[in-house]
Amino acid sequence: MVSKMIDATTTPWVQVTAPGGGTGRIKIRSSGVKVYYGDKQALKGINLDIAENSVTALIGPSGCGKSTYLRCLNRMNDTIDRCRVEGTISLDGEDIYGRTIDTVQLRARVGMVFQKPNPFPKSIFDNVAYGPRIHGLARRIEDLEEIVQRSLERAGLWSEVKSRLLDPGTGLSGGQQQRLCIARAIAVNPEVILMDEPCSALDPIATAHIEELIDELRANYTIVIVTHNMQQAARVSQKTAFFHLGDLVEFNDTAEIFTNPRDDKTQGYITGRYG
Amino acid sequence: MPPADRHLGARLLTHGSTLTFLRKVQHPSQHPVDRFAEDLARFEAVRGPFKRTRPYDTDSRIPVDGAGAGFSSKVSIGMSASYLLLVLIVLGLFGYYLGKSRAVAIPVTPESRLHSVPSYHGYFVALWAGVPAFLLLALWVMLEGWLIMALVLGAMPERLTNVGDQELSLLRATILNHANGIDTGQTLDPAIEAAAVHYTTLSSIGNWCILVLGSVGAMVGVRFALRQVSMSLRARNHVEQVINVVLILCSLVAIMTTVGIVLSLLFEAMLFLSHVHPYDFLFGLQWSPQIAIRADQVGSSGAFGAVPLFTGTLLISAVAMAVAVPIGLLSAIYMAEYAPPLVRSLAKPVLEILAGIPTVVYGFFAALTMAPFVRRVFGAEGLGFDVSSESALAAGVVMGIMIIPFVSSLSDDVINAVPQSLRDGSYGLGATKSETISQVLLPAALPGIVGAILLAVSRAIGETMIVTMAAGLSANLTANPFEAVTTVTVQIATLLVGDQEFDSPKTLSAFGLGLVLFVVTLLLNIIALWVVNKYREKYD
Fold first, then answer.
1. How far apart are alpha carbons A246 and A252 in whole angstroms?
2. CA distance B424 to chain A (A)
3. In B156-164, where does DSSP find H-type helix?
4. CA distance to partner chain B, nearest, from residue A159 (Å)
């Protein structure tokens, strides 16, 4: 793994101002990120800075590498045998691929919500309590109950499940399951939440729920979301990055990308000409 | 062999196969002739007096000419059936091409197409060639013996047929034996010989008939089916129906075999329980199944309390599971989650080789290596326990090693089958590998793992060879794994080895034990299914 000095000038066109809120601080910096699956190169050197307390959307046609990039941010690619990552990604200035980094701690700071709701085969309570338990976030059962309640409330699920916390999480509807997974991610009190097409398996009403939720969560968390739905990117994000064939083609304020794309490929994709 | 002895033997052979002779071991001092006489007396006590048609004579084994005469023109049902099958195959192929070409010949317009493609019309005609003839053949095979025998008996003089049920069945057997050319070594009543010839003739005629009838039936079927071929014939659906019935019949064979096994087990076990009270059998604490032939022999009081066998089985199975479950499950976890692909691709087949080793070889290992090892470690020179040379521990440990692949291989598959999304979800929350395995993967894989373990348990309960060689035959009622114990299966094997009489409680007790074994494994399977269903509902 190649470690490089972090150089803000590698991404000169990034506007650090964050319209629609946010502190304006950079939470995650990545430079020259290259990912290989065996011999196949999936990412060809990505330079991308993600602002704190904002929603950054990654869009692009299938196979463009946006999910791969997302999974680099909490080192989920480590679980894939033939995957190799080069370049530098830093979280609050600390190289997450450095020798001293503990992936377990990293993933507690950078939570993840997956494409398909994947509640554990446990009760609703145990699903949310899973993270706090393994990280020892609660000493007493009352603390744990409080964390579970607060997480479910933040995920907008509390009122729907408070009477049946001991029922299996797999018994919920698809949209509820996805919000349960968000609650599960929130429960370990992460700084960043990565979402990999969180609404692709949901109906429009459940999708609207989740989008509202993302907008509320932005106040406390830095959110990176991969989506195939351009309206969704436009609705929930402040920044949008357009990936194409392993390259980052364009990265700008969402409003700019959708109203005034600078690259022809971006324009082609958002107007539906290809992708 | 003295002549009288030989004659008695010949006479007894005609009684059929229900009576087998006791072995010399059980009567070391007795002269064989006395034993035969004794057995004949015993048989007659059970089946009623044997009818002697003629005093014994040395030349009675010469075949009777009258019976042999009819044999030359005989066609057996087997031959008839194979000829018919040949005819049916030819007609079927012929019918297929006729049906197909007739369907092809139907003019097709864009507005009206054939309901089924031509090959289905071919199959339809071919099935009409085969199915009716096949049904006829099946019916004939089922009814042949009964029908012909009824005709033969009807033609016989009344003085022979107007007898009791047992005599009549003996008469039937005699006629059949004679007709089939089995030399029983006795001179028969001329009427019986005539009946045998009659039987042979009738059955030959019948078999010819079935060949001709079957062939004609097949041709009629083909002709009938060919007339049906038309644009609107739903040949495809008809063929589908026949396939459906064939599949049902095949699964019925499996089910009926199981039912048959259960019934035969049940009847013999009932016979046993009429000798020994079920309570004494199931709850008795003493097992010594030696029933003496005569009252003055040693050990004339048999004891059939099966509790020592049950506890022995449980003890050895428990030891085996204590070895197999942790080792199997942990190695499955290693192979599924930790091992690099190369190690996994090597280790898994190697582990599965364990399952391919014959149990007799495991028996050697248990008796010659493990038992002395156990004795050395735990015995007087080691930890100071009182270890017998054949111990439940040695047999159980080796059996556990044998069962490891059952647990590991199945559990490995089950753990691998847990969706990757659950692993991702757990890792994404910052869980370590072992946390993910113990808290997410194992609960999700539990139904399959329980299934694997129960399969291993039934394997352990049914295992015979290792225990025979390493744990011994003494039915001790003990929970001490250092003592020799015996199991249900070992006792069944011991009870049925060699020539045995099938009406003594000793032999019949094997069926009683078999029934218990069957019921226990059935219960285990039911529990396994219940567990699997309960959790599957929850985890899917």
1. 18
2. 8
3. 158-161
4. 23
Interface of B with A in 333-352 (CB under 8 A): 340-341
| CB B312, CB B396: distance < 8 Å | no
Instruction: For residue B138, give Cα distances in angstroms to A208, A212, B212, B238, B253.
Output: 68, 72, 15, 22, 15
Same domain? B139 vs B185 = yes
Same domain as B46, residue B73? no
A59: which strand partners? A242
Helix (H, G, I), strand (E, B) or coil at B202: helix
3-state secondary structure of B79: helix
CATH topology of domain A8-270: Rossmann fold (3.40.50)
Domain boundary among B233, B248, B283: B233
**Residue count of chain B:** 540
For chain A, the distance separating the N- and C-terminal CA atoms, rounded to the nearest angstrom, is 32
DSSP assignment letter at A9 = G
User: pLDDT tens track of chain A, all 275 residues?
Assistant: 444 444 444 433 333 344 455 667 889 999 999 999 988 999 999 999 999 999 999 999 888 889 999 999 999 888 887 888 999 999 998 899 888 888 888 999 999 999 889 999 889 999 999 999 999 888 899 999 999 999 999 888 899 999 999 998 888 988 899 999 999 999 999 999 999 989 888 888 888 888 998 998 999 999 999 998 888 999 999 999 999 989 999 999 999 999 989 888 898 888 887 65
Chain A CB contacts of B442 below 8 Å: none
